[in-house]
Write a structure and sequence with these properties.
heterotrimer; A mainly alpha (about 350); B mainly alpha (about 325); C alpha/beta (about 500); B: about 325 residues; mainly alpha; ABC transporter involved in vitamin B12 uptake, BtuC; two-stranded antiparallel ribbon; globular; C: about 500 residues; alpha/beta; Rossmann fold; 20 strands
Chain lengths: ~350, ~325, ~500
């Protein structure tokens, strides 16, 4: 009997260690987005054998997984910028328009600079990023300086932005005949699409800034209680302005990738409805839409999920219209789960069920 | 007389004329803007100042007007509804599908469309109020859902040739002197009138204003806050569905890609009409003015013939900016406790 | 003003054994309350004693866990504010919870509009007439169509009272009505209260101002830690006994600032304000705090103490006067400027302006210091070290330094806020009501640490409404009245002298 109790004690010690580890895993905020993504991809794999296959061809890695990541890159960039703005209790619904403006500016620059060497490329990149930063500065000034609600302030650029882009492009879709520019959206480095490296670089930069400097603490303090942060001497206004500028730059980068990918800049349709997808990606990633708590990695996962969803719907053969409806259901589900009131009611409901069964 | 309120008493001696009251000033600005723009158009373009040009403003923007009235109530209560454009599109598709492909009598189909729109709005209202979710995100998801379901019903545009609907669509009410109004425009005017009455003289309307002013106070005063918020979104859904019906008559087709961006135009109309985005202040008649201003911009550009259409968006954006800044300026001047 | 003997007047509202628990806190434990017609009944107690919970239970905002409420002998159980109103219990809240964007008339009639027969539309003429007659009952004449927001708080309060009357209240509950009023306005309010009392209304008057209680009420109920200490006739309870009942013990006899601690008269002022003021907020004030000195700032709520603190710290911009810190003339545009120069402010509203509830104890403690340092992040090791030091010095009770501050008790949260500022080693620490709403032991620990630092050379500006604390801890006491400095008193002054200066005698 002593032996059994000893084994029992040992096994309970092991299971409790496993239990603790398991509980910590379950409590990790990235668990749900990761699980969703894996389920989506795995489901695809079941439906389409060979979906998850990766091949090495022509010196590049090919496969649906790579494709999803590559197509998600613009959304991922915009989501990173949006995460920061949302964390500071703000919102930027003009990112689609900013993307269009940046793409148009880049195309215009290339069209008006002589085609030799790499100069047009650098100029185009610089011009696009500057345009994005300017848009971000404009949004930020309206929110911080004029004290407008973020929805309203960014609504203005959202409405007027495409008009501005169209006036730059003269109402046309600008086509690009410049090979080096095409590399941004279509090139490969070390066998992987260049766009992935851009996203990785921005992510790494942001993580570094947030973790290694005081910025992360400031952002969380401002997001949770802007007034208290202000009294504590945190320069909330400057940081918020900076976040909007960064969001604009991120949108500009996305614009470069998008226009480079199709070798044209369409002021009307580039980045259409992108802001909605970006907000959805941020929400899916576990960041609180009310500010304070945020997760950059979560937003990346969110962007991947949205892209995987689109690809899945296409691959299954369901009409692409379903995409919108499914995204809507997803948003509702995520929001309800994030709402403490709803969770409380669910818990109460489950407890009632358990009591009734007992 | 007591010593506490000498200032108030002297002001109370004569009621301030209505045009000097604070809430009316943005409305006056819009009116002045409208008159100025109309005047400029009359000077710049030949044939601009004819009655039909202005009646066309109503005819071409009837659906926007109806949606904007619903949006006014939502914004007055301190919320926002981004799904209206999608609900309009969905309504056009549903109506066209029922009438053209399933042979429903038009009035029955219209009744169903209105019911679905109202129910949809009420559903969003419940999510917003019961679970304290942010209106922006809930109605955003609602927009996705409505357009998604519309596309599911029919991907392509459905043309309408049902005789009754076609007849109503082409009906014009003569107003003498060669001017005429469409059925849609009449409906829009009726909705504006009903909306103004509702906002100004019903307890529902006054509760909406109270909630926009301070939701917690309204609750403590015993007002039915939760029920009113749900009703406000239901009203917005109803207006969107009705606007969808009017839009179907206007375009004689149902298409899931109709009314793209309509919600932004509606919000712009409401803001330009003097309603404060934070809620609690504004007039339905102001929204009508806002719609007319937006329509006038479009008309001016068409008359010019040379200005590219994208200027519309830039001008609307600039107007929005101006009005928002004006609103902020006025709020700063308000007496604080 | 000798009212009829209380025992003779009928009881209108009787609450028996009311109890309410919020999560882990027992806010009310078996409290009785009897309101009589034609009587003003004061409800007193320290912060956290249960006054606001009791009000919430009576007015339908919350439902009691146990106990009952009877109105005219009939048991009532209002589950919403509207129901309480319908039963005849009218309330005027501290924040005057009306809608400033609606007109005066609308605020008076919201939820109970008289209607026209046609379409059930609101009869605005009746609303306006009714509004004017309601206000006339309080001898008020206002433009009833003007938005409520265009009137000052005192008027809004009168409108709230008129609304409560219009709902034909039998009971009127006034929750801290004088917090934002000046002297003249308080007198007006008391005139209205006396008038309502003559009409036979039962009035419950919640306040923390002792002198006002004695000016207008007939009976007093004292709450302490959620229990009723007792119900007394005002005539039978002198102020000292009232304070004793509220606090639970005699005024502390611990020696106040000892003579050795007095800073040398030629010590340079840590901060020197000359004619500092802001139109509409504060008349020009001269103030000096020397190194190692604890200057008390007393006065009623609304006398300008917090406004002065905000000007000194750069939260508001001064329009007049100049400020010298350490002898150098400065212009503060942002709290960060103040922090950079060695100032610190522990604000009055700890929940909204102080702690960030979702961040950990450690993060809250290092926040201000980190803000001063700018972008350079502090190493985790250093953060832990600082946090642990302060946790120990102040006796902060938390599971560990990673616990979110929102989970701590009020007293511990206040300590965390103080820790944040002590860590920056300021030359001047401004404390705005630091001991409000925290238990006695925490109060002692907090003030002891502050006194220790003052002894070591830190200047302190200690703002408090409790004269006892001012006389106990401070080297000098400045008194604010009606947004200007009324005067200064030396540290050994009696409470009576301080109270006299506050009252303006």
């Amino acid at each position: 009997m002593a032996e059994t109790s000893g084994t029992m004690a040992a096994s309970s010690a092991i299971s409790s260690r496993w239990g603790r580890g398991l509980r910590r895993c379950l409590a990790h905020p990235l668990l749900w987005p990761l699980l969703t993504l894996i389920l989506l991809l795995a489901g695809n794999g079941l439906f389409n054998p060979g979906f998850l296959a990766l091949q090495w061809r022509d010196g590049h890695l090919y496969g649906n997984l790579i494709d999803i990541a590559h197509r998600a890159a613009p959304l991922a960039l915009v989501s990173l910028g949006m995460t920061l703005v949302i964390a500071l209790r703000g919102l930027d619904i003009s990112v689609g328009a900013v993307l269009a403006i940046a793409a148009t500016v880049a195309a215009w620059t290339i069209g008006h600079v002589s085609n030799d060497g790499l100069l047009p490329l650098w100029l185009a990149i610089a011009a696009a990023l500057a345009a994005g930063a300017l848009c971000g500065l404009w949004n930020g000034w309206l929110v911080v300086g004029a004290g407008m609600q973020p929805i309203v302030a960014t609504l203005i650029l959202m409405v007027a932005g495409r008009g501005i882009a169209q006036s730059i492009s003269g109402g046309q879709i600008l086509t690009l005949y410049y090979a080096p520019y095409s590399f941004l959206g279509n090139g490969f480095v070390l066998g992987l699409p260049f766009s992935l490296f851009v996203v990785a670089a921005v992510f790494a930069l942001l993580q570094l800034a947030l973790r290694k400097t005081a910025l992360g603490l400031f952002v969380r303090a401002i997001g949770h209680n802007p007034q208290a942060a202000h009294v504590a001497g945190v320069r909330a206004r400057a940081i918020t302005l900076g976040a909007y500028v960064f969001c604009g730059i991120a949108a500009a980068l996305a614009g470069l990738l998008v226009s480079s990918n199709v070798n044209s800049a369409d002021a009307n349709n580039a980045g259409l409805l992108l802001e909605l997808d970006a907000i959805l990606a941020v929400a899916l990633g576990g960041s609180l839409l009310g500010g304070g708590r945020f997760s950059l990695a979560g937003s990346l996962l969110g962007a991947l999920i949205i892209q995987a969803l689109t690809t899945t719907i296409y691959a299954i053969g369901v009409p692409p219209q379903v995409n919108l409806a499914v995204k809507a259901v997803l948003v509702f589900a995520v929001m309800l789960l994030q709402s403490p009131l709803c969770r409380g009611q669910l818990r109460a409901l489950l407890r009632l069920r358990a009591e009734r069964r007992a | 007389m007591n010593a506490v309120a000498p200032a108030a008493t002297s002001a109370a001696a004569g009621r301030r004329p209505w045009w000097r009251r604070r809430a009316q000033v943005p409305l006056l600005v819009t009116l002045v803007l409208f008159v100025a723009m109309a005047g400029a158009g009359g000077v710049l373009y030949h044939g601009f100042l004819t009655p039909q040009v202005f009646l066309n403003l109503l005819i071409d923007n009837a659906f926007l007007c109806i949606v904007a009235v619903g949006m006014t109530f939502v914004i007055l209560a301190g919320g926002i509804d981004l799904s209206v454009g999608a609900v309009v599109a969905f309504s056009t598709v549903l109506l066209a599908e029922l009438v053209q492909r399933h042979g429903w009598p038009p009035l029955a189909a219209i009744a169903l469309v209105l019911a679905v729109g109202t129910g949809f709005g009420a559903g969003m209202g419940v999510l917003i109020q019961r679970f304290r979710l942010q209106p922006f995100v809930v109605t955003l998801a609602g927009m996705f859902l409505a357009r998604g379901v519309a596309t599911l019903i029919s991907v392509d545009s459905i043309d309408i040739d049902q005789p009754w609907l076609a007849a109503v669509a082409n009906l014009r009410l003569p107003l003498g002197g060669g001017s005429m109004l469409s059925v849609g425009a009449l409906i829009a005017l009726a909705v504006v009138a009903a909306g103004a009455l509702l906002a100004g003289a019903s307890s529902f309307g006054r509760t909406v204003y109270a909630i926009g002013g301070s939701e917690s106070s309204a609750r403590l005063m015993g007002l039915p806050v939760d029920a009113t918020v749900v009703r406000v979104y239901a009203l917005s859904g109803f207006c969107a569905a009705l606007a969808g019906v009017v839009y179907t008559l206007y375009m004689l087709s149902g298409y899931s890609q109709h009314a793209l961006g309509l919600e932004l135009d509606a919000i712009a109309a409401v803001v330009i009409g003097g309603t404060v985005l934070a809620g609690g202040s504004g007039y339905v008649l102001g929204t009508l003015l806002g719609v007319l201003v937006l329509g006038l911009i479009q008309t001016l550009i068409v008359f010019d013939g040379e200005l590219s259409s994208w200027w519309t968006r830039i001008v609307i954006g600039a107007l929005l900016l101006a009005f928002c800044l004006l609103q902020r300026l006025f709020r700063r001047k308000e007496i604080k406790p | 003003m000798t009212p009829a003997p209380s025992a003779a007047r009928p009881v209108v509202l009787q609450a028996r054994g009311l109890g309410k628990r919020f999560g882990a806190t027992l806010a009310l434990d078996g409290v009785d309350l009897a309101l009589r017609a034609g009587e003003v009944h004061a409800l007193m107690g320290q912060n956290g004693a249960g006054k606001s919970t009791l009000i919430k239970l009576l007015t339908g905002v919350e439902r009691p866990d146990r106990g009952s409420v009877e109105l005219d002998g009939r048991v009532i159980a209002p589950s919403t504010p509207m129901e309480a109103q319908r039963e005849g219990i009218g309330t005027v809240y501290q924040e005057v919870d009306l809608c400033p964007n609606l007109s005066v008339a609308e605020n008076l009639y919201a939820g109970r509009y008289p209607r026209r027969r046609r379409l059930r539309m609101i009869d605005w003429r009746q609303v306006r007439d009714g509004a004017r007659s309601l206000l006339r009952q309080l001898h008020l004449e206002l433009d009833v169509d003007a938005p409520l927001g265009s009137y000052p708080v005192a008027i809004r309060q009168m409108v709230a009272i008129a609304r409560a009357l219009g709902v034909s209240a039998r009971v009127l509950v006034l929750d801290e009505p004088t917090s934002s009023l000046d002297e003249g306005e308080v007198r007006e309010l008391f005139r209205v209260i006396a008038q309502l009392r003559e009409r036979g209304m039962a009035i419950l008057f919640v306040t923390h101002f002792l002198d006002q209680v004695y000016a207008v009420s007939d009976r007093i109920t004292v709450l302490r830690d959620g229990c009723r200490v007792g119900e007394y006739a005002v005539a039978d309870l002198p102020p000292a006994a009232l304070v004793n009942a509220m606090v639970g013990r005699d005024l502390p006899t611990v020696a106040s600032a000892d003579a050795e601690r007095a800073p040398p008269p030629d010590a340079p002022p840590a901060i020197d304000a000359q004619g500092l003021g802001c139109r509409g907020k504060l008349h020009p004030v001269d103030l000096q705090v020397r190194r190692g000195e604890m200057l008390g700032l007393g006065g009623l709520l609304g006398s300008g103490r917090t406004e002065l603190a905000r000007l000194l710290f750069g939260l508001d911009r001064a329009e007049r006067g100049e400020l010298r810190i350490g002898g150098e003339r400065v212009e503060l545009k942002h709290p960060a400027d103040a922090v950079m120069r060695g100032l610190a402010l522990c604000p009055e509203e700890r929940k909204t302006d102080g702690i960030v509830a979702e961040l950990s104890v450690r993060e809250n403690i290092v926040l201000a210091l980190q803000a001063r340092q700018g972008w350079r992040g502090m190493s985790r090791a250093r953060q832990d070290e600082l946090a642990r030091q302060l946790v120990q010095a102040l006796g902060i009770k938390a599971a560990d330094i990673e616990t979110p501050v929102g989970l701590l008790s009020g007293g511990n949260q206040q300590k965390v806020m103080l820790a944040r500022w002590l860590v920056t080693e300021p030359r001047l620490l401004i404390l705005d009501e630091p001991t409000r709403g925290i238990d006695v032991a925490a109060k002692q620990e907090l003030m002891a640490e502050v006194a220790r630092r003052a002894h070591a050379g830190m200047a302190v500006l200690f703002i408090s409404a409790e004269t006892g604390e001012l006389t106990r801890w401070c080297d000098r006491i400045a008194v604010m009245r009606e947004r200007r400095k009324a005067g200064e008193l030396p540290g050994g002054s009696t409470e009576a002298r301080v109270l006299a200066m506050i009252a303006g005698d």
